[in-house]
Hints:
Elements: H1 2-66, H2 77-89, H3 100-112, H4 116-121, H5 132-145, H6 147-154, E1 160-163, E2 172-181, E3 184-195, E4 198-201, H7 204-210
Helix pairs in contact: 3-6, 5-6, 5-7
Keywords: Signal
Protein name: Lipoprotein
Organism: Alkalibacterium olivapovliticus
Amino acid sequence: MKKIKYSLISLSSLILLVACDADDEVAEDDAAKISQLEETVAASQVKIEALESTVAENNELIENRSAEFSYLSELTEADLEAYNTFLEDYDTKVLENYSPENILLLYFHSVVMSDWEAIYELTYDGGGLPDRDEFNEVFYTAYNTQSMLESALDYRYYDTLEARSDTQSEDDVSVEISVAIGVSRFSTVYGLKRENDIWKMDVLYLLEDDS
């Protein structure tokens, strides 16, 4: 009888031990799953934060690009004051201190604003400049086909603008304007000539080609 009791006690102890071991294994499995889940949540949080940062950067870029653009934004206060004086009677003498690069910016700005008077006065004569009415008619035709307006729009977000030293002389210079779009880079070179101590755009040949 005692042997039976001892056997029952041993069996009960064994069952209890097995049950405890099973509970421990379940607990370990649960702990492993919880740890894995926590790692997944942490990784997802990192991705979310990175995505939020990217969205914020893109929104800032869109906002900056959506802001009203002006080719005059890079000019100094002195240059802007000279430009405003120039608009009063279109006397180019006030632009004597303008560099060739700034004359190109002013020209593009005038094209975008359809300021024919400014465009006329900033165009190099060289003995071939027609009167204002004829010039406006010719330029307006070129303006509508492609010409300067497209260039002015294409280079709104230019990243380089410089006079080329290899083509520069006292009264003649080439200015290159460039813009990067994705992996591509585009650039155009414009000639300017000094006339009465003022740099002017040498573009009459472009108008003649379009007329």
